[in-house]
């Protein structure tokens, strides 16, 4: 190769790689969706639904211009809602049409779904900038999709909006519950104990003078409301009616998907095995709270060499005791010796345990400006797609997908999985209405200890005594109180809570003995715990569904290169308090390892007990693969000509009438489009003996495209014709 040709080859290679590296339009708009979520209130079910509906709209805007793909909404009846659609005008610039339709559909949906968001001004500014950068006229609001891709995008958005207003989410009333009411009066976390709870097994609202949600929005004099208690009535993606059952409580029906049965319940009148499971679960949460001190001298390996790779999951409550490490934290993951992508051992990463546990709690909680768990997994998907080792093949086989095709298919499938995870998890939350650890631990502490009738403060509904973790206050104890008021009360060795933190940027609460009735989860005092029931864990359900879907979607359980990472800088990452005390890099060999770590993080953070976790993981294991399999049926379809084995239009060219011969009997919609893509003729033609006539007399001279469509709006033949 001479120097001139070599230089040309280098330039072309650089240009090709630069184009290949550019994010697709779908990716750019997905980033806007995530921005919209982070600027809105922290509502995981609402955002899962928005991610799904917007991803499905993106997919339809891509698929409608791809003759080999099937649309999800357009021309279909989805859960009884019809979305009329006849035929997209043919276009020679398919990719440009797809990008334009995707942009208008997403733009309109974002403006509608986040119109009442506190971040709407910033979002509007940014999506307007993106529309301008892409060269689109955002003032074009026409929904006449026959006119072009912009109108197609607007039409798709309009129909998705109409669909959403009747999908069971109660969007028109800001997603309000229709009949759910809590049985417990609210607890004031800033006050001692939980003396007024009526049923420890049921969810309890919290009352704040100032409440700050995970997206950093403040509210004053707030009593939390159970978000999405009736979400089981929302229309799903791949979930089937056979997965659902209906239960009645207080005269109202709750639809429950993939019902795992009830959690263990506390009997405050007598000791029994179910009650002991409830007590063990909450005692473990308290014990793991003692593992949040970076100065306790305990060092652990957090690399894939030591964590992850769970061999199996508990199948009954008793098995939980061997799956979770009560005293050291973590589960039965065995780790992996070698990275299968490099053939080299995973390098150990030894860090203070208290740093690792705190980082886990905050990273998977998603921190301030949260995109909530479903959005978090879209971020992880985008991270995966940015890695040099990613191979864009569905299930790791078949033809390579270009960036836009890959992104819209990934978002569509993952969005569907997140929608079903939200519906399943919150249907169970609403049905069982189960308590959170902060309510249960404080309430049991009010009752006393349940281990020994011969010791002070015995009550069958109290906390179990565990030396070194859960004990009784003695007369010489620093916690004895004025006039030994607290002697005999239950105390915990735990994270000391936000009362020990004056400045979260410099202070660390540490771990020590506290009165159990004053226990705090590892959270901010203005948040404490999410506003919905504990059973089952939404994080576990979302994460495992996403992990299973990404495993199936990529055809590989491992992150590209055999490891995914997230770096947390020393003294700069944590929000609840200062830390971590050293640089920490979260590492996961597989998507499932990341999901399992997410599940554990909610226990370290005091948000969930093990009984909330495992059912969520198991349900996610079903939802993820089912969502991908359901999405795949839309990815390909037989070519239009397969529906009509032979057809012919003559004379061609013509001056007036043409005869159409096709392997078809009955009435068929035939449309004629001009060279500019505009609809010129629409006719319902009756084929008799596989023949019909089409009148083109009123058309001006030019080139046209004749298209035949079946009753489902699918193209079954297409032919170019000249009018003389």
Mean pLDDT: 92
For the record, give the distance between the C-alpha atoms at the N and C termini, rounded to a whole number.
52 Å
CATH topology of the domain at 18-172: Vanadium-containing Chloroperoxidase, domain 1
Spatial order of the strands in the main sheet? 17-16-19-20
Please state the structural category: alpha+beta
Question: How does the overall form come out from the CA principal axes?
Answer: elongated
Helix content: 25-40%
In short:
The protein has 724 residues and is α+β, with helices and mostly antiparallel strands. Among the domains are: 18-172, Vanadium-containing Chloroperoxidase, domain 1 (Up-down Bundle), CATH 1.20.144; 640-723, Sandwich (Immunoglobulin-like). The chain has helices at 3-21, 25-38, 44-63, 94-113, 120-134, 149-164, 273-288, 320-323, 353-365, 372-385, 403-432, 437-447, 538-554, 591-604, 610-635; strands at residues 77-78, 81-82, 207-212, 218-223, 244-249, 252-257, 299-301, 350-352, 470-472, 490-495, 511-515, 564-568, 584-588, 647-650, 657-662, 666-674, 679-687, 691-695, 702-709, 715-723.
């Amino acid at each position: 190769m001479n120097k001139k040709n070599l230089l040309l080859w280098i330039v072309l290679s650089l240009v090709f790689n630069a184009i290949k590296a550019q994010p697709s339009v779908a990716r750019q708009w997905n980033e806007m969706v995530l921005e919209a979520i982070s600027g809105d209130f922290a509502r995981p079910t609402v955002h899962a639904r928005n991610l799904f509906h917007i991803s499905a709209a993106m997919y339809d805007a891509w698929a409608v211009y791809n003759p080999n793909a099937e649309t999800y909404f357009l021309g279909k009846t989805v859960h009884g809602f019809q979305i009329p659609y006849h035929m997209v005008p043919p276009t020679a610039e398919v990719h440009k049409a797809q990008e334009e339709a995707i942009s208008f559909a997403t733009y309109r949906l974002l403006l509608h779904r986040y119109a009442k968001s506190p971040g709407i001004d910033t979002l509007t500014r940014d999506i307007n900038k993106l529309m301008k950068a892409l060269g689109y006229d955002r003032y074009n609001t026409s929904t006449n999709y026959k006119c072009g891709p912009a109108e197609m995008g607007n039409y798709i958005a309009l129909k998705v909006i109409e669909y959403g207003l009747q999908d069971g989410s109660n969007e028109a009333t800001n997603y309000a519950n229709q009949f759910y009411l809590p049985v417990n009066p609210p607890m004031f976390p800033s006050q001692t104990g939980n003396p007024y709870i009526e049923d420890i097994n049921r969810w309890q609202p919290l009352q704040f003078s100032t409440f700050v949600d995970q997206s950093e929005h403040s509210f004053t004099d707030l009593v939390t409301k159970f978000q999405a208690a009736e979400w089981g009535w929302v229309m799903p993606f791949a979930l089937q009616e056979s997965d659902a059952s209906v239960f009645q409580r207080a005269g109202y029906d709750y639809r429950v998907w993939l019902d795992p049965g009830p959690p263990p319940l506390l009997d405050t009148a007598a000791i029994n095995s179910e009650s002991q499971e409830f007590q063990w679960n909450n005692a473990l949460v308290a014990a793991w709270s003692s593992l949040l001190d970076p100065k306790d001298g305990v060092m652990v390996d957090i690399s894939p060499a030591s964590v992850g790779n769970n061999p199996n999951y508990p199948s009954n409550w008793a098995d939980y005791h061997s799956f979770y490490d009560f005293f050291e934290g973590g589960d039965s993951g065995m780790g992996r010796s070698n990275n299968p992508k490099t053939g080299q051992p995973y390098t150990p990463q030894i860090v203070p345990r208290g740093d690792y546990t705190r980082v886990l709690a905050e990273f998977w909680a998603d921190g301030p400006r949260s995109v909530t768990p479903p959005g978090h997994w879209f971020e992880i998907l985008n991270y995966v797609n940015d890695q040099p080792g990613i191979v864009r093949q569905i299930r790791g086989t078949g033809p390579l997908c270009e960036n836009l095709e890959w992104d819209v298919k990934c978002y569509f499938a993952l969005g569907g999985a997140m929608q079903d995870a939200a519906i399943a998890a919150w249907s169970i939350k609403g049905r069982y209405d189960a308590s959170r650890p902060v309510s249960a631990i404080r309430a049991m502490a009010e009752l006393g200890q349940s281990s020994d009738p011969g010791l002070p403060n015995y009550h069958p509904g109290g906390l179990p005594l565990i030396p070194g973790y859960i004990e009784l206050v003695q007369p010489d104890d620093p916690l004895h109180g004025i006039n030994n008021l607290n002697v005999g009360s239950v105390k915990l060795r735990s994270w000391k809570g936000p009362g020990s933190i004056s400045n979260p940027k410099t202070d660390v609460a540490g771990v020590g003995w506290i009165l159990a009735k004053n226990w705090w989860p590892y959270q901010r005092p203005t948040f404490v715990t999410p506003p919905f029931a504990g059973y089952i864990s939404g994080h576990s359900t979302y994460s495992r569904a996403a992990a299973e879907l990404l495993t199936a979607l990529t055809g590989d359980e491992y992150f590209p290169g055999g490891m995914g990472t997230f770096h947390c800088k020393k003294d700069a990452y944590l929000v609840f308090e200062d830390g971590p005390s050293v640089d920490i890099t979260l590492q996961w060999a597989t998507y499932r390892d990341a999901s399992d770590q997410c599940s554990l993080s909610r226990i370290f953070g005091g948000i969930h007990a093990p009984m909330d976790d495992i059912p969520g993981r198991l349900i996610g294991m079903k939802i993820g693969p089912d969502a991908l399999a359901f999405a795949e049926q839309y990815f390909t379809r037989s070519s239009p000509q397969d529906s009509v084995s032979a057809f012919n239009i003559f004379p061609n060219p013509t001056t007036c009438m043409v005869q159409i011969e096709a392997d078809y009997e009955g009435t068929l919609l035939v449309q004629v489009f001009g060279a500019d893509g505009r609809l010129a003729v629409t006719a319902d033609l009756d084929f008799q003996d596989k023949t019909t006539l089409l009148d083109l007399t009123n058309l001006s001279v030019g080139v046209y495209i004749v298209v035949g469509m079946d009753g489902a709006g699918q193209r079954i033949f297409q032919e170019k014709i000249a009018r003389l």
